[in-house]
Design a protein that fits this description.
258 residues, transmembrane helix, membrane, transmembrane, t-SNARE coiled-coil homology domain-containing protein
């Protein structure tokens, strides 16, 4: 049991109270009262184990703040257990109707109400959308409709010839719209083909650039190799060059001195 301090145990007791009040309300409304019996039983056992843990804790380490809360916790455990398994003469304990935490007062009031909860039911698909037409949020989310906005004329007073002319005109208008749509699709196809041709041309240019880069890179590598070879030869012939220069200087000095 991890709940070993009074505030948490009082909160657990409040949850048990709410469950018991919901259970009693279900009985008063002729509903099934045993849907939460297993959960209530486990919660009562947790409350009992928590109180026993606190009692063991204060025996080892006396703490007045915990000791002062234990009688109240024991009283609530006794009252809640008796309310969970009531006898014919068991009245509703005041402990059951008063929360330990004042912030739960509204929940307790709702749980003690004898009126059944009003459950809001909404249907996703409806035949009548008149109410939704005036909702700006829905209009922004669903701007398209399956049915046309222009209602067909009342054909009850039309003759067969007039009905035939009306439908012929509608079909003609639809044909014109389809022709315009087809022309637009054709333009989009031509534009797509032009974009494809332009991309093909760009691919060819990129291939040419890549070939040029590869060619220049090969030339650069060959030039670098020639420079490396010349540098190595210069280092190998450096001593010979020095000897030749010294001989030339010596010859010049002999000639000058004579």
């Amino acid at each position: 049991m991890s709940t070993t301090n009074p505030p948490q145990l009082f909160l657990l007791a409040d949850h048990i109270k709410l469950s018991l009040l919901e259970r009693q309300r279900a009985i008063s409304l002729n509903l099934s009262p045993n849907s939460q019996d297993a959960q209530i039983s486990r919660s009562l056992e947790q409350l009992r184990s928590g109180i026993e843990a606190l009692e063991s804790q204060v025996e080892d380490n006396p703490d007045e703040s915990i000791t002062s809360q234990l009688p109240r916790l024991r009283t609530q455990l006794t009252d809640l257990t008796s309310q969970f398994r009531p006898s014919a003469e068991t009245p509703i304990s005041p402990t059951l109707t008063q929360p330990n935490d004042p912030s739960l007062s509204s929940d307790f009031a709702a749980a003690q109400s004898k009126k059944p909860r009003q459950v809001s039911k909404s249907v996703r698909f409806r035949d009548d959308d008149a109410a939704d037409d005036h909702d700006p949020n829905r209009a922004s989310l669903f701007p398209y409709r399956d049915d046309p906005s222009d209602a067909p004329p009342d054909q009850a007073e039309l003759s067969n010839q007039q009905i035939h002319e009306y439908h012929s005109r509608v079909i003609s208008e639809q044909d014109d719209q389809l022709d315009q749509l087809g022309a637009s699709i054709g333009r989009q196809r031509e534009l797509s083909m032009q974009i494809g041709d332009e991309l093909d041309g760009q691919v060819v240019l990129l291939d040419d650039v890549e070939e040029g880069v590869d060619r220049h890179a090969a030339q650069f590598r060959r030039a670098r190799g020639r420079l490396d070879r010349f540098s190595r030869k210069a280092k190998e012939n450096w001593s010979l060059t020095v000897i030749v220069v010294l001989i030339v200087i010596l010859v010049l000095l002999i000639v000058i001195t004579k």
